[in-house]
Write a structure and sequence with these properties.
This protein has 515 residues and is mainly α. It has one domain: Glycosyltransferase, CATH 1.50.10.10. It has 18 helices and three strands.
């Protein structure tokens, strides 16, 4: 049994949280029928970025009863030729996916049909809870650090002007990260956390993650391409994006959930899969993605505890900051894309952040005030929780995305606290934390001003100075998975997370006045 612990930075004891990760599960799931494997693993739990590692696209798909005989779309497809996601083969595969515990699924989960491609654009947009008086709507993913936009499309054309915003080194590192991800995408379209080395060339890259969570890992990798402006119509990486989105649609079940529900931590997979599908729709307004994106958003709403926030599973009656942060990101992008969202979700997320934030210092806890980020039990000493403000960064970004101004006392206190734990790549000191850097970079960029300048001055050298950049090495463009979640997420997770950090300049526009 693998254990995970949560420890307050000031605590003298460990609050142990059992995650129930059994290494033997991998072999059992490969050999057993899907329904037996799913039932056997229903009690298993995986913490946070263990979601960012998968059992492998083919093996997982077979365990879920999917047809894995299809191949990724050929690279010579015309950029404007959209793949046929509604082919009988894919539809049949979707219909065969069943939740692990159907009794846990509310009977009233709304599912929408595919959009009529003949509908005028105005009819595809519905108001979201982020619109209205007093709500900040300037945070849309957009076209550059200087607030460039894309006309009526709230996501804008993500055409990075990195030579102005970040510099040539950052641009080159971003491109190298995307190239590594491209080379290690599975033929089925997913990213395989523990099997990506089958795509290695000159040498094996090393750094595999754990099994079973390819949907979340695939969503994370797709976000890196979408963040750089790549869509299913792009000339450079169009085939990569098409393959990933096709695979995600193939593992979305009838209630809208992306991937298997084996263990409560499937919500991380779902949040990342939803975020990727929503951004793909928001950037292109393609009817191919609208129904999948909306159904994913609907399932996000169904997972939420009434009147508050999210944790593991469907309405589990307890909450945590990490899952809530991912869900709010998906809802924010959904509202910007014109999809339907529930305003109560935003109010619940705000209430949760108030409940877990220390009013004096601004530190946000994981499940309560005062407890720090989770860590695998065996890595607690190697990665002391008091050297990371990952959950504080999540809370700061969530508050901003829920419409709180960057000048609010809660946002400012949290941002000040993050400056005490700036990115530093020191493996011996246990300060490497890619998850923290991902959220911290997004949050501090939104806060802007001196906070962003100081964070950037530490973040860029930490990331750029440790990217593998040997053209003769298959690892070229990737980052070693040496943070607390490296053993679970693997090299795909670390490369996607740090590539997204470098894309912050043109993935989300800064709020008004954040300079």
């Amino acid at each position: 049994m693998r254990h995970y612990a949560i420890r307050s930075p000031s605590a003298t004891h460990r609050e142990v949280h059992e995650a129930g990760f059994e290494e033997r599960l991998y072999g059992h799931l490969k050999a057993a029928p899907w329904w037996l494997a799913s039932a056997a693993s229903h009690g298993a739990f995986f913490v946070l970025l263990s979601l960012l590692a998968g059992e492998g696209g083919v093996a997982q798909a077979r365990a879920e009863g999917l047809d894995v005989s299809r191949e990724a779309p050929p690279v010579d497809l015309e950029p404007d030729v959209e793949p046929d996601f509604e082919s009988p083969r894919i539809v049949e595969a979707q219909e065969r996916i069943l939740p692990t515990a159907i009794e846990d699924v509310p009977p009233d989960v709304p599912v929408v049909p595919d959009a009529d491609p003949d509908l005028p654009p105005d009819e595809r947009f519905l108001p979201g809870p982020f619109e209205g008086k007093g709500v900040n709507t300037a945070i849309g993913p957009g076209g550059g650090a200087r607030g460039g936009g894309g006309g009526g499309n709230p996501f804008g054309p993500r055409t990075p002007n990195l030579l102005d915003a970040a510099g040539r080194k950052t641009r080159d590192a971003t491109e190298a990260g995307l190239e590594w991800l491209r080379r290690h995408q599975s033929p089925q379209g997913n990213w395989d956390g523990d099997g990506f080395e089958s795509r290695c060339g000159r040498n094996r890259c090393g750094g595999p993650g754990g099994p079973l969570h390819d949907p979340g890992l695939t969503g994370f990798a797709l976000l890196a391409f979408l963040g750089a402006g790549e869509t299913h119509r792009s000339e450079t990486y169009g085939a990569v994006v098409r393959g990933g989105l096709r695979w995600l649609k193939g593992v979305q079940d009838a209630e809208g959930c992306f991937g298997s529900r084996a263990g409560g931590h499937f919500v991380y997979d779902h949040a990342l899969g939803t975020l990727a599908m929503v951004e793909a729709y928001g950037m292109t307004q393609s009817p191919l993605f609208k129904a999948s994106a909306q159904n994913g958003v609907n399932f996000v709403t169904q997972c939420r505890n009434p009147y508050l926030a999210w944790r593991y599973g469907v309405r589990p009656q307890d909450n945590d900051t990490s899952v809530t942060g991912w869900m709010v990101m998906a809802l924010k992008s959904a509202a910007l894309s014109g999809l339907e969202t529930d305003p109560d979700c935003i109010e619940g997320a705000r209430a949760w952040m108030d409940r877990v934030t220390e009013p004096e210092y601004g530190r946000a806890g994981y499940t309560a005030r005062g407890n720090g980020p989770a860590r695998p039990q065996e890595l607690m000493d190697r990665f002391p929780p008091d050297r990371s403000e990952s959950l504080t960064a999540v809370a700061v970004l969530t508050r901003i995305f829920c419409g709180e101004p960057t000048t609010s006392p809660e946002v400012r206190r949290g941002a000040d606290l993050c400056l005490r734990s700036l990115p530093l790549w020191d493996e011996a000191a246990g300060t490497v934390d890619h998850y923290y850097w991902y959220y911290g970079t997004l949050a501090m960029f939104q806060v802007g001003g001196d906070h962003w300048k100081r964070w950037r001055a530490a973040m860029e050298p930490a990331i750029l100075g440790h990217q593998n950049r040997d053209p003769a090495d298959c690892r070229n463009g990737s980052w070693d998975p040496v943070d607390p979640w490296g053993p679970d997420g693997g090299r795909v997770y670390s490369t996607a997370a740090l590539t997204l950090c470098l894309e912050v300049y043109y993935r989300y526009k800064q709020v008004a006045g954040a300079r």
